[in-house]
Amino acid sequence: MRATMPCLNGHGHGGKAACAVAACLAFVTFLVVALDPSTRASSWFLSSSSSSASVLSPFRPTATGSNRGSGASGCPLLATSTGGAGGGSGGKNSTGKKVLFRGDTGGVGRDPLAASFVNADSSYVDDELPHVSVAPAPSPAPESGFDDAATADGVIEVVPVTQRTRNLKLERLELGLAKARSMIREATRNKDNRPPLTDKNYVPVGPVYRNAYAFHRSYLEMEKLLKMYVYEEGEPPVFHDGPCRSIYSTEGRFIYAMEMENRMRTRDPELAHVFFLPFSVVKMVEMIYEPNSHDMRPLRRTVFDYIDVLSTKYPYWNRSLGADHFMLSCHDWGPYVSSADGHLFSNSIRVLCNANTSEGFNPSKDVSLPEINLRSDVIDKQVIGGPSASRRPILAFFAGGDHGPIRPVLLEHWKGKDADVQVSEYLPQGVSYIDVMRRSKFCLCPSGYEVASPRVVEAIYLECVPVVIGDDYVLPFSDVLNWPAFSVRVAVPDIPNLKSILAGVSPRQYIRMQRRVRMVRRHFMVNGPPQRFDVFHMILHSIWLRRLNIRLHGED
To answer: What are the residues facing 209 on neighbouring strands?
Structure first.
């Protein structure tokens, strides 16, 4: 795309002469750099500013690749890995597939500690935000949360290459976020000595949360401050539409709710903290993908072209290299499609059901989306609630297809071999899947082709303690929810010991876990219209936390 000279936007007497002088100076400098083989792009880019820096800045190559479009003046810089979408290592991940995104795909180097709700004495964000230049991204944080990553405190700053005109609107947005960070940081300290915050609907308390007080404070700050902009470009069904009754229903329900949202959505992009890319990967697969072709390039091209349109028409993508933008997909191919643009993959907030760390999912910037299989427009009351522990005679239950690398192991060890651990591919005719789940204490949730499974939410709905079997899966809302308090996680090598592990849970402990499953269910409920603390707002809160992890500089 054509670079825009800053002086072409100048006004007043003598503007043409200044433009001519600046153009000549820039051209001579360009020739000197081009003819001198000892000049390197990195030293050119990172050199200290001088009086002519504002003239030369449009010519400067960035370490992350040039911006697309002419919507932004200047070339902003974001600390990120240079690997872009990453390259394959030739290995295989936990789902038995060839690794596509292994490598330096840790995102923008954001602080995994910045969104921690675990330790009361840990800082939510650092008091002194570091001034970041080009740096390698950290390795992905483990499943249990941001706080487990061994990195220093800090918030990633998106800084412009040159200081030019101040963007006062952006500075006001960042000032509001800074105040929210301070309040949430304070809420993480001395949580046990604070009375619960008042709330007319619900007050988060108890061990199902990693830090209930900090979560509540953060949620209230989100409701008060967060503004989202939905790009209007694109036509249904690929854009602004999605599936609402299928295993991918979370994708369509969220897109629909975003279209209807009127409290946190803004029509003015200048007031937005985050920007939503409203494409549906499920609809792309239905409308664009050629069945059995195994060619996903048209899907990637669609995403690439869409971002190209937005980055040309608006300044917001180029301003942050996508760091304040988010996409959402519940399709298995979501991670692969997101690699169509390096900045989308490495910088943007990707909300994915396929939250697989072995495929580039980075918990410090990406969001794990719960997979919910809805068969109607409303959740049937028959799939909500269940009996007490004393009326659940089956220890563990699973019924499902034999696919992926984990389920064959489960079926080999337990299919038809134990009345307490009922594992099968298909239930006999006339036997209700929901009824058997209601009669089971633990519901087994092994990964299939991908790491996510709708059985996790199904178990929560039916008050059956979920047992997650698989590796590399980041559980939904694990930055807020204390999953070990209401679920069991079993590694694949421990499948032969499944019965002894679950039988080792005492009756008293199980009653507590089941009660906590009932408490946490509100955060996975799909409501129309959305209600406070339900799955839609929990997704928004996860996006809100990731947005707090970066700070944009108000300079154009």
So the answer is: 481
Helix ranges restricted to H, 210-359? 212-225, 249-260, 281-287, 297-313, 316-320, 334-338, 342-346
Could you give the C-alpha distances from 506 to 219, 398, 503, in angstroms and in order? 34, 21, 7
Query: For the segment 1-35, what is each residue's pLDDT rounded down to a tens digit?
Result: 333 333 333 333 334 344 443 444 444 343 333 33
- b/e map of 274-301 (b: 16 or more CB within 10 Å)? bbbbbbbbbbbbeeebeeeeeebeebbe
**Helix axis angle, 535-548 to 249-260, nearest 10°:** 80
Closest CA to 217 of 196, 193, 231: 196
Tokens of 83: 């690997």
Distance between CA atoms of 123 and 187, rounded to whole angstroms? 10
Residue-wise DSSP of 399-455: E----TTTHHHHHHHHBTT-SSEEEESSPPTT--HHHHHHTEEEEEEE--SSS--TH
For the record, the structure tokens of 152 come out as: 């220093």
φ, ψ (nearest 5 deg) of residue 420: -80, -30
Cis-peptide, bond into residue 243, ω within 30° of zero: no
| pTM across the whole model | 0.76
**Half-sphere exposure at residue 339, Cβ-oriented, CA atoms within 13 angstroms:** 18
- Residue 390 burial (C-beta neighbours within 10 Å; 0-12, 13-18, 19+): exposed
Spatial strand order of the sheet with 394-399 comes to: 421-424, 394-399, 440-446, 465-469, 488-490
The CA-CA-CA angle for residues 518, 521, 526, to 5°, reads 150
Q: Half-sphere exposure of residue 162, counting CA atoms within 13 Å on the CB side?
A: 23
How far apart CA 332 and CA 452 sit, in angstroms, is 9
Q: Under DSSP, is residue 161 helix (H, G, I), strand (E, B) or coil?
A: coil
Instruction: List pLDDT tens digits, range 401-422.
Output: 999 999 999 999 999 999 999 9
